[in-house]
């Protein structure tokens, strides 16, 4: 009997200690949890509530409309255009920025490349620049009288300047180029940090088996980086589907020309703050955008699935 009591006592002491540590952990987490509940959970719940109402922000009146806001979103041609622009932007930018970042990181990981640190420093500088400043710079470059038109005309590539900013065929593509150029350095750095940890013995074993550089990239580097690629794809999808500031500055908030740069995030902003009676519709669009981002992210995660080399 005594032996049983001696055996159970340490167990009870250990359990009490774990309970005390758990209480202390929750005590330290309480301020952060309060902030999350107030500014995230409560905000999302309130937005969901407003999405089922017609809301007048001036008089703070709510009139329940059921799923009318959601049904209007599916029949709204402007909303469908914004969704089309957002999807096109994401499906072009995300694969290209991921591929370019991987190729540059793979090239910089080679021991034969000189001045790698200098190149990384210079190439990473655009990431430190604000998005608003980059947008203004690109608007200057692609202006009718900007350096890009002047350069192509000077070499005889074309005789008449192209209005990239006001032509619906080019406007969204300009933002794509800007976004790719400004985000590739970040993802390149992430890939490069992961390549540093890739065991050199993998490449040495492959070389002994007669593997070429392409074989090493395809069968060793890419599978090893698969978890990192999943992270890059997910953050890229979330970022591109939420693209707002570049389109807002580029079009002065209108989404022009001819709605060619109108994104869902910009449309939500315009409906939320551009009119007194459309906050409910804006909330419905925001909820739909959240669902779309979640669905596309899950799809990309499954397509790229796997844990890399085992």
UniProtKB/TrEMBL annotation:
Q: Which UniProt keywords apply?
A: Cell membrane, Membrane, Transmembrane, Transmembrane helix, Transport
Q: Name one GO cellular component term.
A: plasma membrane
Question: Which residues are in the ABC transmembrane type-1 domain?
Answer: 83-300
Tell me the GO BP annotations in alphabetical order. Answer: transmembrane transport
Q: Transmembrane segments in this chain: where? A: 25-49, 87-109, 121-142, 224-244, 279-300
UniProt xrefs under Pfam families: BPD_transp_1 (PF00528)
As for membrane topology, the entry says: Multi-pass membrane protein
PROSITE patterns from the UniProt entry: ABC_TM1 (PS50928)
Subcellular localization(s) per the UniProt record:
Cell membrane
Whether Chloroplast counts among this entry's keywords is: no
DNA-binding is among the record's keywords: no
Q: What PANTHER family does the record tag this protein with?
A: ABC TRANSPORTER PERMEASE PROTEIN, INNER MEMBRANE ABC TRANSPORTER PERMEASE PROTEIN YCJO
Q: Which family does it belong to?
A: Belongs to the binding-protein-dependent transport system permease family.
UniProt-recorded name of the protein: Carbohydrate ABC transporter membrane protein 1, CUT1 family
> Which species is the source of this protein?
Oenococcus oeni (strain ATCC BAA-331 / PSU-1)
Taxonomic lineage is:
Bacteria, Bacillati, Bacillota, Bacilli, Lactobacillales
């Amino acid at each position: 009997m005594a032996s049983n009591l001696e055996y159970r006592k340490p167990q009870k002491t250990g359990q009490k200690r774990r309970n005390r540590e758990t209480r202390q952990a929750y005590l330290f987490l309480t301020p952060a949890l309060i902030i999350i509940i107030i500014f995230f959970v409560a905000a999302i719940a309130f937005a969901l509530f407003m999405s089922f109402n017609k809301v007048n922000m001036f008089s703070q009146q709510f009139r329940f409309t059921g799923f009318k806001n959601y049904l209007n979103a599916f029949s709204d041609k402007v909303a469908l255009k914004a969704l089309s622009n957002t999807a096109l932007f994401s499906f072009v930018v995300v694969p290209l920025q991921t591929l370019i970042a991987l190729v540059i990181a793979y090239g910089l990981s080679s021991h034969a490349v000189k001045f790698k640190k200098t190149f990384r420093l210079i190439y990473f500088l655009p990431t430190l620049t604000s998005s608003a400043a980059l947008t203004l710079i690109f608007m200057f470059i692609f202006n009718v009288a900007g350096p890009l038109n002047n350069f192509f005309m000077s070499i005889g590539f074309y005789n008449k300047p192209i209005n990239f900013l006001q032509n619906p065929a080019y406007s969204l593509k300009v933002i794509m180029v800007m976004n790719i150029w400004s985000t590739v350095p970040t993802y390149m750095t992430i890939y490069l940090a992961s390549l540093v940890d890739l065991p050199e013995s993998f490449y040495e074993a492959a070389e002994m088996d007669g593997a070429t550089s392409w074989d090493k990239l395809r069968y060793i580097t890419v599978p090893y980086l698969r978890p990192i690629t999943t992270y890059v794809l997910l953050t890229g999808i979330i970022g591109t589907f939420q693209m707002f500031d570049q389109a807002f500055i580029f079009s002065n908030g209108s989404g022009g020309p001819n709605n060619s740069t109108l994104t869902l995030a910009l449309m939500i902003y315009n409906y939320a703050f551009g009119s007194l009676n459309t906050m409910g519709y804006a909330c419905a669009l925001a909820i739909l955008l959240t669902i779309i981002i979640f669905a596309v992210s899950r799809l990309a995660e499954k397509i790229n699935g796997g844990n890399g080399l085992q």
